[in-house]
Design goal:
The complex is a heterodimer of chains A (230) and B (772). Chain A is of the alpha/beta class and 230 residues long. Chain A has helices at 46-54, 76-86, 102-112, 117-131, 146-158, 176-191, 203-209; strands spanning 6-17, 20-31, 35-39, 61-66, 69-70, 87-90, 164-168, 195-199, 212-217, 220-226. In chain A, helix 3 (102-112) packs parallel to helix 5 (146-158). Classes of the chains: A alpha/beta (230), B alpha+beta (772). The A-B interface holds A 47-48, 51, 54, 56-57, 76-77, 80-85, 89, 91, 93, 95-101, 104, 107-109, 111-113, 116-118, 121, 140-142, 156-157, 160, 168 and B 382-388, 391-392, 395-398, 401-402, 405, 408, 411-412, 668-669, 671-682, 761, 764-766, 769-770, 772. Chain B: Belongs to the ABC-4 integral membrane protein family.
Chain lengths: 230, 772
């Protein structure tokens, strides 16, 4: 279900931290509807690449275009607004707010865009239904299992119908059963057209959910290959 | 290098922001504490300090020179620790006008120099008399500008017994041994009627009886009738107590507030620093640090910035309080530069770091008991949310989400919020109290100023100019006709014998606009005179004489006994010695120079030019500027402003610390919020809102407490000064001021929260989220 329109385009992106070169002239495109897995050894620049695409960090050189907009030229506020409307993120450690219920954690993303509390909660409830965690909506993060927490995090990422869903080691903190559930979820999302970029060490996740694999080594794209989903 | 020191150094380096906050808080708190304690100490015994500074005389004794020789006086040393004298002494009656201060008969003593073993007179202006025809007058020190503008401005000579003495300086004795000093040769020429001895005694001098016994001891062996008078220092001390007493509650309250805020903030900051380091404590334990070593690491980590802050804060406080105390004591009229006592510096320098250690010790001991695993999980494991109902209610509200999230933050850390709230509350109370106090003091001062008139006028002979030849009516008319004149009051003071009392009563007979100039306004009981046989008395005079409204006083007036009824009580009398008010009477035989005039000018009038215009209109008149506020109001408002500002800063630093800790602890949450699209501005507004909410509550709670403190302390001060206050002095609050004060809590909170909030907005999301 991919199209030729690139959702993400990186052109000669370089990122330096002092003397360390984290990314060294990365050029990459992700088309709408694609599910791309980024893999590579520790320190190869996977997380840096994800941060660049998410607008969480700025490149030292090169251009980053996401959903038709140049992120490398945006200031902090514009980047925030861009993330709010066009990107969804899932983290290894979920990053839920302990003081908010599962439902409020998810509704929060919509409320930041200006939606009323009622509207945000209704949309959040739809997602809770879709993700099979409706019964856990009023539970606080400390009382949720790892898999449930990650589903809540996915729901939050999807609240504003993002053009691109970024996942950073989404199964890294989960047991195998919960990891399987999250993989199924990501696969389902991609199959209904959600563009995915997954940074992972987990080959099973990559082969299960991604249609293309980008391998990084020493900050450069070492190899790109199409994947047959298992 | 020991492992403890290595770990401590690493902790200090790793937590630069927190270390800096501790340093800053301890610095400001130490400065505040030093000012507060120095203030309490100075206010405790100002007379004693001045007395000790001058080696004051326990007793000023006057002997009859006809009955005892100087040699015998010098030889009488029973029970004497130190003495000065014998000095020739004479009472002189000023025959020229030397202003209201020196209008009474003056005790003049012949002294070769101001120093000596006892009663080291403070020569604060000019020089000591060195030749015949020169005199130094006794007057508390005052700034040069006051001297050149005040009632002493035109005082250059004293005429007595046909002799003219040129005033060559002003000096001050806290023992009250003389009104003026001349050379021994000069006093001999004035035919002294007494011989003065100044004594400091050994043994008990704390009571009048004890002092009488000491004097009796030293006079044993002298002719029985040689002793004319003995003035114990306790009399001067008791008189002085009424003046400085005014300051005690004001300054004491500020001192206590300062210490309280310092203790709370230091406790908050330090315990927060230790609690936020629990994870590190766990790591240290896992490495093999013993529980004692862990406690030592944390105490060392906190002590380094605390000791640095305490040393610098002591220096800062010392530098700030010295000029303030000097100004205070000058205002109190004790003529000394008040130094900060060494014990104050020692107590603060050791006390504040000790307080820091105690504050750090409590949570560190908790860390001492925790297992490594517990400590690590206490610092890093997901915790159960707090204030969940509030969060839920807020998330459903119509408020912008950044604001509603901010409002919920204080509920996540209730203990820390309570401490922050306490410091904010104290900040608001201080600001409210300081504002009320300043306003009340200004009102008290304004009453005096308004009543005293902007300009004082008196017929006076200058060096080359005879006194005005105009009659009092002509002078009044001339003053009323001057451009810029608003009101004119005319008065004449008479010392009148009172039937049944040995001490005369001074009555100021007034006419013109005297009542309207403010004296009537400051009545707080009774009414202004409506008949010639009525008197209005200032409170101090009523108290001293044991009189009340409605009582009758019979005085000898113009050769006949005349009875007056007291009909009103007022805060203050005319400038100079306290006297009663009565309506005008004609005194046909009186020297025109005895009349004085008070002129209230139209607002905006250039008082310097106006004074010149009076002198130009009649060179035989002396005119001086009475405005500028008295030292009382200057000192109290000055202290109020400085301490309120310091305490508000300390409170803001407490907020800064809380927010810095919150931001550190919630970095992950902040990173996540930014990752889902919260803008930097929203982050700032969320963090600032969390404290502003506390500021609002502190404002609402602090104002009533500040009002209560004002309502309690101002009347206490007035009681100490033996005056009562008219109610309008207390009615300083209006809705606009209260609204402004309610805002002060928010201002302190926002000021403290802004810097860490901006730091939170600048957090690098990638680092925060991926380093967990």
């Amino acid at each position: 279900m991919t199209t030729e329109t690139p959702v993400v385009r990186l052109d000669g992106v370089r990122k330096e931290y002092g003397d360390t070169v984290a990314l060294d002239g990365v050029t990459l495109e992700i088309r709408a509807g694609e599910a791309v897995a980024v893999m590579g050894p520790s320190g190869c620049g996977k997380s840096t690449l994800l941060n660049m695409i998410a607008g969480l960090d700025k490149p030292t050189a090169g251009e980053i275009t996401v959903h038709g907009e140049r992120l490398d030229t945006m200031n902090e506020t514009k980047l925030s607004l861009f993330r709010r409307h066009h990107l969804g993120m899932i983290f290894q450690f979920f990053n839920l707010l302990d003081d908010l219920s599962a439902l409020d954690n998810v509704a929060l993303a919509a409320q930041l865009t200006g939606s009323s509390a009622g509207t945000a909660r209704r949309r959040a409830l739809e997602l809770f239904d879709e993700l099979g965690i409706a019964t856990r909506r009023n539970v606080y993060p400390a009382a949720l299992s790892g898999g449930e927490r990650q589903r809540v995090a996915v729901a939050r990422a999807l609240m504003n119908r993002p053009a691109l869903l970024l996942a950073d080691e989404p199964t890294g903190a989960l047991d195998s059963k919960a990891g399987e559930q999250v993989m199924d979820l990501l696969l389902d999302l991609n199959q209904i057209g959600q563009t995915l970029l997954i940074v992972t060490h987990d080959e099973r996740l990559a082969h299960r959910c991604a249609s293309r694999l980008v391998e990084l080594a020493d900050g450069q794209v070492a190899r790109e290959s199409a994947l047959d989903r298992v | 290098m020991s492992a403890v020191w290595t770990a401590s150094r690493a902790a200090v380096r790793r937590r630069r922001v927190q270390t800096f906050v501790i340093f800053l808080v301890v610095l400001v708190c130490t400065a505040t504490a030093l000012i507060s304690v120095a203030l309490l100490d100075a206010a405790r015994s100002p007379f004693q300090r001045a007395f000790d500074g001058q080696n004051g005389a326990h007793s000023v004794v006057t002997y009859d020179p006809a009955k005892v020789t100087d040699e015998r006086l010098t030889a009488a040393t029973t029970g004497v620790e130190a003495s000065a004298g014998p000095f020739g002494q004479v009472i002189v009656e000023p025959q020229n006008d030397v202003g209201p201060v020196f209008s009474q008969p003056l005790t003049v003593v012949g002294r070769a120099d101001p120093g000596g073993a006892v009663d080291r007179v403070d020569l604060w202006h000019g020089r000591w008399p060195s030749a015949a025809g020169e005199i130094v007058l006794n007057e508390p020190p005052q700034p040069d500008e006051d001297l050149s503008m005040g009632p002493l401005a035109g005082v250059t000579e004293l005429v007595t017994n046909g002799k003219t003495l040129r005033i060559v300086g002003f000096a001050f004795t806290v023992s009250g041994s003389a009104d003026g000093w001349v050379t021994p040769a000069q006093v001999a020429a004035l035919h002294p009627t007494g011989t003065q001895m100044l004594y400091r005694f050994t043994g008990d001098v704390s009571t009048h009886d004890a002092l009488a016994a000491r004097v009796s001891g030293v006079t044993t062996g002298l002719p029985g009738d040689a002793l004319l008078a003995a003035q114990p220092y306790l009399v001067t001390k008791e008189e002085a107590a009424a003046g400085p007493g005014v300051y005690l509650p004001f300054l004491g309250t500020f001192g206590i507030l300062g210490l309280l805020v310092a203790v709370i903030i230091v406790g908050n900051v330090v315990s927060g620093a230790v609690v936020s380091g629990f994870r590190h404590i766990g790591v240290l334990k896992a490495l093999g640090f013993t529980p004692r070593q862990v406690v030592a690491v944390y105490l060392t980590m906190v002590s380094v910035p605390a000791v640095a802050g305490a040393i610098l804060g002591t220096g800062l406080g010392w530098a700030a309080v010295r000029p303030m105390l000097t100004e205070t004591f000058r205002g109190l009229g004790f003529g000394q530069d008040a130094a900060v006592q060494p014990w104050v510096i020692t107590v603060v320098l050791l006390g504040v770091p000790s307080l820091v250690l105690i504050a750090a010790l409590l949570p560190a001991l908790r860390a001492h008991r925790l297992s490594a695993a517990q400590a690590i999980s206490a610092g890093s494991a997901p915790r159960r949310g707090r204030g969940l109902r509030v969060q839920r209610a807020l998330s459903g509200s119509r408020l912008p989400r950044a604001v509603s999230l901010g409002l919920g933050l204080p509920f996540a850390r209730p203990a820390r919020t309570a401490l922050t709230m306490a410091s904010l509350l104290l900040g608001v109370v201080t600001v409210t109290f300081a504002l009320g106090l300043s306003d009340s003091v200004i009102r008290i001062s304004e009453v005096g100023e308004i009543a005293a008139g902007d300009i004082g006028v008196r017929p006076m002979r200058g060096d080359e100019q005879p006194a005005s030849q105009r009659s009092d009516t002509e002078i009044e008319q001339m003053l009323r006709a001057l451009p810029g004149t608003s009101q004119v009051g005319v008065g004449v003071a008479r010392d009148l014998s009172v039937a049944g009392q040995s001490e005369p009563l001074m009555i100021n007979f007034v006419r013109g606009d005297t009542a309207a100039m403010g004296y009537e306004q400051q009545l707080y009981e009774g009414h202004w005179m409506t008949a010639p046989d009525q008197l209005v008395l200032p409170t101090q005079l009523l108290n001293e004489r044991g009189l009340e409204i409605g009582e009758k006083v019979t005085v000898s007036l113009q050769g006949a006994w005349t009875t007056f009824t007291i009909v009103g009580e007022t805060v203050r009398g005319l400038p100079g010695p306290e006297g009663a008010f009565a309506t005008w009477r004609d005194f046909p035989d009186l020297d025109p120079a005895a009349f004085f005039y008070q002129v209230q000018t139209v607002e905006g009038t250039d008082l310097g030019a106006f004074t010149q215009s009076i002198r130009a209109a009649d060179p035989g008149l002396d005119a001086w500027d009475n405005t500028g506020g008295d030292s009382f109001s200057t000192v109290v408002t000055g202290f109020a402003a400085v301490l309120a500002l310091l305490l508000a800063t300390v409170a803001a630093l407490g907020v800064l610390n809380t927010v810095a800790l919150n931001v550190t602890e919630r970095r992950r949450d902040l990173g996540m919020l930014k990752s889902i699209g919260m803008t930097p501005r929203q982050v700032v507004s969320m963090v600032v809102t969390s404290m502003a909410a506390l500021g609002v509550i502190a404002g609402l709670l602090g104002i009533p407490l500040g009002l209560a403190a004002h309502r309690l302390v101002v009347p206490l001060s007035a009681d100490a000064a033996k005056i009562r206050l008219p109610e309008y002095v207390m009615q300083v609050w209006d809705p606009a001021t209260l609204a402004l004060l309610a805002f002060s809590g928010v201002v302190i909170a926002v000021a403290g929260a802004l810097i860490p909030a901006r730091a939170a907005a600048r957090l690098t999301i990638a680092r925060v989220l991926h380093n967990e």
